[in-house]
């Protein structure tokens, strides 16, 4: 299971015990926020795209969505999400548990500026009922990110 790969990854840093597993699903921002008892914005959702025929992950705040104009300005191409049924094979984690930890080789990770307004955020840990609370410096360290980018906008209420 993918969560076991993530647990092994964090064990290298003595942090595997910080992974939280829930009885209920945390597969969406709303469900994760309920499971954690926090605002949805602090859920670091991980979205998977194909850029220049290579997979990438973008972590962004739970209250945002991709701004197509910003995305195209940065990546020089239109946003193309990985198809739902292909995510697990390409990334190494199934939808609902996608995270930047213990992913398949050759995947670039980007962190969206929307996360910087929080002291800590909650990315998933490879399953649809897991999360870990990380500070922004910890997220930078453990995600193996390539760059901070600005490709989102707040969702309309």
What does this structure look like?
The protein has 157 residues and is α/β, with parallel strands linked by helices. 25% of the residues lie in helices and 24% in strands. It is built from 5 helices and 10 strands.
Number of strands: 10
Gyration radius (Cα, Å) is: 14 Å
| Morphology | globular
What is the string of SSEs from the N terminus onward? HEHEEEHHEEEEHEE
Helical segment tally?
5
Helix content: 10-25%
Q: What topology, given as strand order, has the largest sheet?
A: 2-3-5-9
Give the percentage of residues in beta strands: 15-25%
Distance between the termini: 36 Å
SSE class: alpha/beta
**Whole-number average pLDDT?**
96
Tell me the major beta sheet: 4 strands, mixed
Low-confidence stretches: none
Secondary structure elements and their pairing?
Layout lengths: L1 H10 L8 E2 L7 H8 L7 E8 L2 E8 L2 E3 L1 H8 L11 H5 L16 E5 L7 E2 L8 E2 L2 E2 H8 L3 E3 L2 E3 L3
Parallel strand pairs: 3-5, 5-9
Antiparallel strand pairs: 1-7, 2-3, 4-10, 6-8
Summary, kept brief:
The chain has five helices and ten strands; from the N terminus they run αβαβββααββββαββ. It is α/β, with parallel strands linked by helices and 157 residues long. It has a four-stranded mixed beta sheet with strand order 2-3-5-9. It has a two-stranded antiparallel sheet with strand order 1-7. The chain has a two-stranded antiparallel sheet with strand order 4-10.
Top keywords for this entry?
single chain, 157 residues, alpha/beta, 4-stranded mixed beta sheet, globular
